[in-house]
Protein backbone atom coordinates (compact mmCIF):
# COMPACT_ATOMS: atom_id res chain seq x y z
CA UNK A 1 0.00 0.00 0.00
CA UNK A 2 1.44 3.38 -0.98
CA UNK A 3 2.09 6.19 1.46
CA UNK A 4 -0.51 8.31 -0.37
CA UNK A 5 -3.21 5.65 0.08
CA UNK A 6 -2.31 5.22 3.76
CA UNK A 7 -2.46 8.99 4.21
CA UNK A 8 -5.90 9.17 2.56
CA UNK A 9 -7.17 6.31 4.75
CA UNK A 10 -5.82 8.03 7.86
CA UNK A 11 -7.50 11.31 6.84
CA UNK A 12 -10.80 9.44 6.37
CA UNK A 13 -10.40 7.84 9.81
CA UNK A 14 -9.77 11.26 11.37
CA UNK A 15 -12.83 12.74 9.62
CA UNK A 16 -15.04 9.90 10.95
CA UNK A 17 -13.67 10.43 14.47
CA UNK A 18 -14.23 14.18 14.21
CA UNK A 19 -17.81 13.57 13.13
CA UNK A 20 -18.36 11.42 16.24
CA UNK A 21 -16.74 13.95 18.57
CA UNK A 22 -18.73 16.84 17.08
CA UNK A 23 -21.95 14.81 17.38
CA UNK A 24 -21.20 14.20 21.06
CA UNK A 25 -19.92 17.66 22.04
CA UNK A 26 -20.84 20.15 19.32
CA UNK A 27 -18.22 21.97 17.28
CA UNK A 28 -17.26 24.43 19.99
CA UNK A 29 -16.96 21.65 22.57
CA UNK A 30 -14.99 19.37 20.27
CA UNK A 31 -11.22 19.59 20.51
CA UNK A 32 -8.47 18.45 18.22
CA UNK A 33 -7.01 16.63 21.21
CA UNK A 34 -10.21 14.58 21.61
CA UNK A 35 -10.23 13.68 17.90
CA UNK A 36 -6.52 12.82 17.99
CA UNK A 37 -6.99 10.59 21.04
CA UNK A 38 -9.86 8.74 19.33
CA UNK A 39 -7.62 7.79 16.39
CA UNK A 40 -4.50 7.12 18.43
CA UNK A 41 -2.54 10.22 17.44
CA UNK A 42 -1.06 13.12 19.34
CA UNK A 43 -2.59 16.52 18.64
CA UNK A 44 0.62 17.40 16.78
CA UNK A 45 0.23 14.23 14.69
CA UNK A 46 -3.33 15.21 13.82
CA UNK A 47 -2.14 18.65 12.70
CA UNK A 48 -0.03 16.92 10.06
CA UNK A 49 -3.29 15.87 8.35
CA UNK A 50 -5.45 18.90 9.22
CA UNK A 51 -3.53 22.06 10.12
CA UNK A 52 -6.50 23.69 11.91
CA UNK A 53 -9.75 22.75 13.56
CA UNK A 54 -11.52 24.72 10.83
CA UNK A 55 -9.85 22.62 8.10
CA UNK A 56 -11.05 19.47 9.84
CA UNK A 57 -14.58 20.89 10.14
CA UNK A 58 -14.74 21.65 6.42
CA UNK A 59 -13.53 18.11 5.66
CA UNK A 60 -16.29 16.71 7.90
CA UNK A 61 -18.93 18.80 6.13
CA UNK A 62 -17.69 17.84 2.67
CA UNK A 63 -17.68 14.17 3.65
CA UNK A 64 -21.27 14.44 4.83
CA UNK A 65 -22.26 16.03 1.51
CA UNK A 66 -20.64 13.13 -0.36
CA UNK A 67 -22.95 10.70 1.43
CA UNK A 68 -25.96 12.50 -0.05
CA UNK A 69 -24.59 12.63 -3.59
CA UNK A 70 -26.37 10.73 -6.34
CA UNK A 71 -23.59 9.49 -8.63
CA UNK A 72 -23.98 10.00 -12.36
CA UNK A 73 -27.46 11.47 -12.15
CA UNK A 74 -29.40 14.47 -10.98
CA UNK A 75 -31.79 14.55 -8.06
CA UNK A 76 -35.44 13.98 -8.85
CA UNK A 77 -38.42 14.83 -6.65
CA UNK A 78 -39.04 11.15 -5.85
CA UNK A 79 -35.37 10.73 -4.86
CA UNK A 80 -35.71 13.63 -2.40
CA UNK A 81 -38.31 11.61 -0.50
CA UNK A 82 -35.84 8.71 -0.44
CA UNK A 83 -33.15 11.03 0.94
CA UNK A 84 -35.46 12.06 3.78
CA UNK A 85 -36.12 8.37 4.54
CA UNK A 86 -32.36 7.70 4.46
CA UNK A 87 -31.74 10.61 6.84
CA UNK A 88 -34.23 9.11 9.28
CA UNK A 89 -31.93 6.06 9.51
CA UNK A 90 -28.86 8.09 10.51
CA UNK A 91 -29.73 10.37 13.41
CA UNK A 92 -26.11 10.91 14.49
CA UNK A 93 -25.12 12.39 11.15
CA UNK A 94 -28.24 14.55 11.01
CA UNK A 95 -27.67 15.71 14.58
CA UNK A 96 -24.09 16.73 13.79
CA UNK A 97 -25.12 18.54 10.61
CA UNK A 98 -27.97 20.31 12.39
CA UNK A 99 -25.79 21.35 15.34
CA UNK A 100 -23.13 22.75 13.01
CA UNK A 101 -25.74 24.51 10.92
CA UNK A 102 -27.23 26.10 14.03
CA UNK A 103 -23.82 27.20 15.32
CA UNK A 104 -22.79 28.53 11.90
CA UNK A 105 -25.28 31.41 11.95
CA UNK A 106 -23.11 33.24 14.48
CA UNK A 107 -20.58 35.80 13.22
CA UNK A 108 -17.12 34.43 12.78
CA UNK A 109 -18.07 30.75 12.89
CA UNK A 110 -15.68 28.79 10.67
CA UNK A 111 -18.51 26.95 8.90
CA UNK A 112 -20.55 30.07 8.09
CA UNK A 113 -19.07 30.53 4.59
CA UNK A 114 -19.40 26.81 3.89
CA UNK A 115 -23.11 26.74 4.78
CA UNK A 116 -23.83 29.99 2.95
CA UNK A 117 -22.26 28.59 -0.22
CA UNK A 118 -23.88 25.20 0.31
CA UNK A 119 -27.37 26.70 0.62
CA UNK A 120 -26.88 28.71 -2.58
CA UNK A 121 -25.86 25.49 -4.36
CA UNK A 122 -28.70 23.45 -2.82
CA UNK A 123 -31.36 26.04 -3.71
CA UNK A 124 -30.09 26.12 -7.29
CA UNK A 125 -30.11 22.33 -7.40
CA UNK A 126 -33.64 22.12 -5.99
CA UNK A 127 -34.87 24.70 -8.51
CA UNK A 128 -33.40 22.52 -11.29
CA UNK A 129 -35.11 19.43 -9.82
CA UNK A 130 -38.44 21.26 -9.70
CA UNK A 131 -38.01 22.65 -13.22
CA UNK A 132 -37.27 19.17 -14.59
CA UNK A 133 -40.39 17.83 -12.90
CA UNK A 134 -42.85 20.69 -13.46
CA UNK A 135 -41.44 23.08 -16.04
CA UNK A 136 -41.50 26.83 -15.45
CA UNK A 137 -44.50 26.72 -13.08
CA UNK A 138 -45.52 24.26 -10.42
CA UNK A 139 -49.20 23.30 -10.09
CA UNK A 140 -49.39 25.83 -7.22
CA UNK A 141 -48.39 28.63 -9.64
CA UNK A 142 -44.97 29.33 -8.13
CA UNK A 143 -41.77 29.19 -10.13
CA UNK A 144 -39.12 26.60 -9.26
CA UNK A 145 -36.86 29.41 -7.98
CA UNK A 146 -39.56 30.66 -5.57
CA UNK A 147 -40.36 27.12 -4.39
CA UNK A 148 -36.77 25.90 -3.92
CA UNK A 149 -36.10 27.79 -0.64
CA UNK A 150 -39.38 26.46 0.74
CA UNK A 151 -38.42 22.90 -0.19
CA UNK A 152 -35.05 23.25 1.54
CA UNK A 153 -36.64 24.88 4.58
CA UNK A 154 -39.12 22.02 4.92
CA UNK A 155 -36.37 19.41 4.69
CA UNK A 156 -34.18 21.11 7.30
CA UNK A 157 -37.07 22.13 9.55
CA UNK A 158 -38.40 18.58 9.63
CA UNK A 159 -34.95 17.35 10.62
CA UNK A 160 -34.89 19.67 13.65
CA UNK A 161 -38.40 18.66 14.72
CA UNK A 162 -37.60 14.96 14.25
CA UNK A 163 -34.34 15.22 16.20
CA UNK A 164 -36.18 16.84 19.11
CA UNK A 165 -39.15 14.47 19.14
CA UNK A 166 -38.66 11.44 16.85
CA UNK A 167 -41.67 9.63 18.31
CA UNK A 168 -44.04 12.44 17.33
CA UNK A 169 -42.61 13.55 13.99
CA UNK A 170 -42.78 11.24 10.99
CA UNK A 171 -40.13 13.03 8.96
CA UNK A 172 -40.54 10.96 5.75
CA UNK A 173 -44.34 11.06 5.97
CA UNK A 174 -44.43 14.80 6.57
CA UNK A 175 -42.09 15.37 3.63
CA UNK A 176 -44.31 13.26 1.36
CA UNK A 177 -47.24 15.41 2.53
CA UNK A 178 -45.30 18.52 1.52
CA UNK A 179 -44.61 17.03 -1.91
CA UNK A 180 -48.37 16.49 -2.27
CA UNK A 181 -48.84 20.21 -1.67
CA UNK A 182 -46.43 20.89 -4.54
CA UNK A 183 -48.50 18.70 -6.83
CA UNK A 184 -46.46 15.50 -6.55
CA UNK A 185 -48.61 12.40 -6.04
UniProtKB/TrEMBL annotation:
Annotated InterPro entries: BetI_C, Homeodomain-like_sf, HTH-type_TetR-like_transc_reg, HTH_TetR, Tet_transcr_reg_TetR-rel_C_sf
Ranges annotated as spanning the membrane: none
Domain HTH tetR-type: 8-68
Organism (species): Streptomyces spinoverrucosus
Keywords: DNA-binding, Repressor, Transcription, Transcription regulation
GO MF term (any one): transcription cis-regulatory region binding
Residue ranges for the DNA-binding region feature of this UniProt entry: 31-50
Organism placement in taxonomy: Bacteria, Bacillati, Actinomycetota, Actinomycetes, Kitasatosporales
Protein name (record): TetR family transcriptional regulator
Amino acid sequence: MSARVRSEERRAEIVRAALEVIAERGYRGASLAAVAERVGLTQQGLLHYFPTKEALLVAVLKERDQWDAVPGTQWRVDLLASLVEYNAMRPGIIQTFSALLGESVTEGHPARAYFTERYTRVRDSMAAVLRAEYGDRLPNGLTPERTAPLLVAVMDGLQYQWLLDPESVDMPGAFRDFLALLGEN
